[in-house]
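chain below, 676 aa
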Amino acid sequence: MARATTKRMVAVAGGVCCLAAAAWAETGSPTANEVSQFGLSKMEMKKAAGVGVQEAPAFAEGGAPNDDCANAQLITCGSTVQADLTATTTVPSDPGYSCHNGGPGTQGIGTVWYKFVATHTDAQVSTCSSGVINPAAADSLIGVYSGTCGAFTEIACSDDICGQPLGFNARVCATGLTVGETYYIQISCWSEGDRAVYTVELDCPCGECTVPCPPGSNTEGEPVCFTDYVDNYNFGCNSTPPSFTPISCNQTVCGEFGVHLFGGANRRDNDWYLITVAQPTVIRWQATAEAPLNLLIVNFQAAGNSCATLIGNFASFVLDSAIGPECDLTVTEATVNPGSYILIVRPSSVNDPTPCGTPYVAEVICSGAEPGACCLVGSGACVDGITSIQCAAQSGVFQGVGTSCIDLSCCNVQCSPGSTPEGEPTCFVGYVDATNAGCNNTSGIAFSLIACGQTVCGTYGTFGSSRDTDWYDLFLSGQTYVTWTVTGEASTSAFIILQGPDPLDPCTGLQIISAGSTDACEANVVSACVDPGSTGGVWLFAATSVFTGIPCGAEYEATVTCEVPCPAPDIGACCFASGACTDGLTLDGCDKAGGIWQGPDSTCATANCPQPCPCDPPGAINPDRDGDCDVDSTDLNIVLTNIPCSGSCPGDADGDGDTDSTDLNIILTSLPCPGG
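prediction:
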């Protein structure tokens, strides 16, 4: 097989994380409730995007002083703190989040608690910068509450607001606060795989966000929504009859949206615009709003301009989707053939408290399609000087505008003699997989059987913004070390999945126990020691790791090997934040204990475990103000130059929000340290 050597074969931009929260038909519509399933779960979407790929085990208790509400850490407006969620716990009394994308009322993972005294009538809490500072801090939730521990009222909630590339983190503006009252903040991970140190910022008041309507723009003209509002204005395929607002290339529209109650359930005001282009076109759909928003470009032409066809399999017709925060420009883009396309703007989530009448400004920009290189699947041939549309028509993968075949080597997977054909039809736009879509099959669970030592030659690809996912059912009689190797003509995801405990409903409670993602023509090898339990069932998963841009019919080869018994796991030293070290732990055991594994065959005698500063005692009081592991005249000067100070002050040793004589006494009684 040929192998890509200088350029990545698949260069498909964005959309993956945004689709995790995609939901098409609105509650109370003639179609159905909001659909949230898209491929697998949000965790699977993140794995495909390369976010949070490794599975984290359960963690030891007691990871942070503010692990529980009763010990909430006091912070002040204008402050930034680090929330260490690597070893924190969740207890039954921790409230669920109304905005949780796993379902309203779902608890987060590993909570920490903060409290603040309101100095304004609104306050903004954000973890958006977490992923910039620490890429492992990939997905968090925020809840803001009034009341007391155990008797809270949620007043603000946020999940997946920050926009790309930080879309899984959170930001919320809590309004209607009473100056002088104490409010509580709960910060959690979305899943075990998201445990990390997050950056939490508290600002009072919220940053001002206004979106003025540019001169010369069109006005949407829809009435402001309200409780039980029936939207027949531009609610698209959700209304009867369908209703769209026409829009033209290079047109700007000023509109309003919001979330309102309909029949007792939340409903978003979706605004559907219809554009028709007469030639191959790059459509750029962008918008800014005074609240977090979601944009979509939908291929109405491929659905035969039929709402029934579109709603029946909406996800397969979505060309691009993006979520963005308030007052930031959010952009989607798609290269399209002549025909009709739907452009949607709406609040980012049906669970976000976006007031009706929230303004937005949206713009559609059209340009001609630019040429580049195209790698043809099935042959590995390269074609120069064609557009992405022409490339797709030839079952190719477009390498990007301005690329050249001379700079790359295309990938071609040749299946081995004796391999078993998968036997699935080639996918297409609107395709419904009844062959081996596994838990993604809407018409009944369907798997392909596979046995230890077997090699399968299969095909996959993307259609609209969906992908062909192939699930294989492997029966094991006992504990087995399973290795699943997948090599494909596109960037490829491979999972080993433990079935759920109920044999009548194995998709509920499934666990992804090993996962990986690789580039085209690179072997994706995932392994795990699997104990299938009473069901004996393990699933092996193969799919493209992106959701657009891969022609159906791209080939892959996959092999499963089994080893009984499982080999003994590697052991080594485990370092802890206290400076302690324990020998003979596995990676999993060290993680569960809240430590950092030092590698196979390492020992505490040779490990370089970080030691705590002798002048950094547990708790809020830390006399070492400059962080150099001693208390001296420098720390004294920091306190003296900060008296008096209210708010976030470097001299605030006791963490009460000001610098005063109490902080000075802490420093004086700690001089000198160490050695005092």
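The longest strand covers residues 358-368. The chain has four domains: 16-38+221-368, 69-203, 372-407, 420-563.
thats it, cya
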